[in-house]
């Protein structure tokens, strides 16, 4: 079981992101935030909940396994210290999570939100299981059947999120919770970075493997006073790209690259192939996939965001083979080359790559 705790001010680990204003006016989420702020209950955690244990911790808060003292209901209580949490950011995460919780592939909420003397908090559905990252075998991945089951459910959740005018912004295996080990039922979690479509990103301080090229272009170098690119409007295409990277990771046990920049040779090879797939040889690390699977990846991982497909495009490929039989769970390509990509292994959890 894993519950991540992200910054509610837009700072995922070391990859700080500075946000600007939204293009247009208020939204239903903002109206719900205002109403929630007016009725925010004050209570002390131990007076209303039996704290069983801590099940998640991050720089910005904790997630506790608790039972309700009156009803005995088990739940996951997400608590963030007031000293380092802005009320507006906390309300945004709660209201977005509440708005999305009706979807069967998104973690549910109990509608319990409060403040104590030292914390803000809200109660989530308790998912008794592990996250998707925990079942990925480094250098191997997970079975194609399980990947497809995950893909359909995550795509459905993203379609729902995007239809409501929101962008998750943190799609990765750690934020997909499993209700069973075969991925028959998964739930998307952690909406601490979710924003309204059209919110502007001014700059980022570092890159992560799941970030799209247009987002990586926003990185601000050390000592640089002004961003090198104009503000970037947050769009669902950012989630689509991250979803494509996630699928590669769980199929192979590797990241396809460390960042979508010219300094990353693995990304550069893929970008060259994507620009001219007819005459450019497929990079070695992608050779395990069937032509139809590469067609799917090409649609999800289109460098130009306006040409990028929506996440639900994967549904049209579920009935087709994704991995070549002789390359299932292997790294060796058709030319005999062995990939030297960064593996998804436990030491990477504390590296900037997986923060």
Automatic annotation (TrEMBL):
Top-rank taxon, per record: Eukaryota
SMART domains: S_TKc
Keywords of this entry: ATP-binding, Kinase, Nucleotide-binding, Serine/threonine-protein kinase, Transferase
A Pfam family that the UniProt record links to this protein: Pkinase
Annotated positions binding ATP: 78
GO MF annotation: an example: ATP binding
The Protein kinase domain, residue ranges: 49-330
Similarity remark: Belongs to the protein kinase superfamily.
PANTHER family, per database record: PROTEIN KINASE DOMAIN-CONTAINING PROTEIN, SERINE/THREONINE-PROTEIN KINASE SBK1
Protein name (Swiss-Prot/TrEMBL): Protein kinase domain-containing protein
Species of the source: Silurus meridionalis
């Amino acid at each position: 079981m894993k519950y991540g705790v992200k910054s509610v001010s837009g700072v995922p680990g070391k990859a700080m992101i500075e946000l600007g204003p939204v293009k247009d006016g208020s939204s239903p989420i903002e109206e719900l935030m205002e109403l929630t702020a007016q009725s925010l209950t004050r209570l002390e955690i131990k007076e209303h909940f039996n704290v069983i244990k801590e099940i998640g911790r991050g720089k910005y808060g904790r997630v506790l396994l608790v039972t309700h003292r009156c009803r005995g209901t088990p739940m996951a209580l997400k608590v963030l210290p007031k000293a380092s949490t802005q009320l507006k950011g906390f309300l945004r995460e709660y209201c977005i999570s509440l708005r999305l919780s009706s979807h069967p592939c998104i973690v549910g909420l109990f509608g319990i939100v409060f403040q104590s003397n030292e914390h803000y908090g809200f109660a989530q559905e308790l998912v008794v299981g592990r996250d998707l990252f925990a079942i990925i075998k480094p250098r191997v991945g997970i079975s194609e059947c399980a990947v497809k089951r995950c893909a359909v459910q995550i795509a459905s959740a993203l379609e729902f999120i995007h239809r409501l005018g929101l962008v998750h912004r943190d799609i990765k295996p750690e934020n997909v919770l499993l209700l069973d080990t075969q991925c028959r039922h998964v739930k998307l979690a952690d909406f601490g970075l979710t924003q309204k479509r059209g919110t502007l990103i001014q700059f980022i301080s570092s890159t992560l493997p799941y970030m799209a090229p247009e987002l990586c272009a926003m990185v601000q170098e050390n000592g640089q006073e002004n961003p090198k690119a104009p503000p970037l409007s947050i769009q669902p295409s950012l989630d689509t790209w991250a979803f494509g990277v996630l699928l590669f990771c769980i199929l192979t046990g590797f990241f396809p690259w460390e960042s979508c920049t010219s300094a990353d040779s693995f990304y550069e090879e893929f970008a060259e192939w994507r620009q001219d797939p007819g005459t450019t040889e497929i990079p070695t690390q992608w050779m395990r996939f069937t032509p139809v699977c590469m067609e799917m990846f090409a649609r999800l991982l289109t460098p130009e965001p306006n040409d990028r497909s929506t996440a639900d495009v994967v549904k049209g490929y579920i009935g087709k083979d994704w991995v070549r039989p002789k390359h299932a769970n292997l790294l060796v390509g058709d030319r005999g080359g062995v990939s030297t990509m960064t593996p998804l292994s436990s030491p990477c959890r504390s590296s900037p790559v997986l923060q």
